[in-house]
Model the fold of this input.
Amino acid sequence: MSILIHPGQPLVIGHRGAAAVRPENTLPSFKHAIDLGVDALEFDVRITADGVAVVHHDASTARTCGDDLLIERSTIEQLRRLDAAATFTGVYAPVTQTVIPLLDEVLALTHDMPVIIECKTADAAPAVLWALRLHGATRRAIVGSFLHDATRHARHAGVSSGASRRDVISLVLRGLLRWAPRQLPYAAMCIPEASSGVRLPVGRFVRWGHALGIPVHVWTVNTAADANRLWDLGVTGIISDDPGTVLAARAGRCGG
Done:
């Protein structure tokens, strides 16, 4: 079973690879995070007009590639012509064009590394589940999404899922009523500290999660101070754009 569900130590999870220092959701970003020594990776999946699962966060390519194409209305051939590092402002200088990666490429690159896969649309879930089975990766993955239909697909397929937005809202309401859950339908909570301007009761979620064997992973955390504060609170995993900084914080914390 994945360490994302049964961890033995505080975890450092690369958000879109190492998005602070490499173009997000690209093979160079994932390779860099792996070389740094992250415990797991988090990335996003969308489906092209011709049904190919690609790793990309936004519905449009404008922010990352400069050219403005909608993923769901573009073919894989059109998308692979774009440079996914075109707007990256960090010091990293790619030798060749950086393409939007296929989900298959990322799963092949990560080998046996645990992954959190965020389905950005409901129709991404069946494609993600198919790819996980094809790569023998179902036991190392958590399929997450804001969309309940996407996480429901994973649960029905017997693949570990994260908490959807609906699940998190349900927990918030339970907290207001002080009704602790007796069971939860997901394997992990992958949550921000705040959503839509509302601060989530992370400490309460951690306590409930610990009681039920459900770990809590928090995104996006990019400073040592915040990582240590959340680990002190009992959070299991830190999902970070800057995993090098958070790995150093953990080393200092653990004395090694």
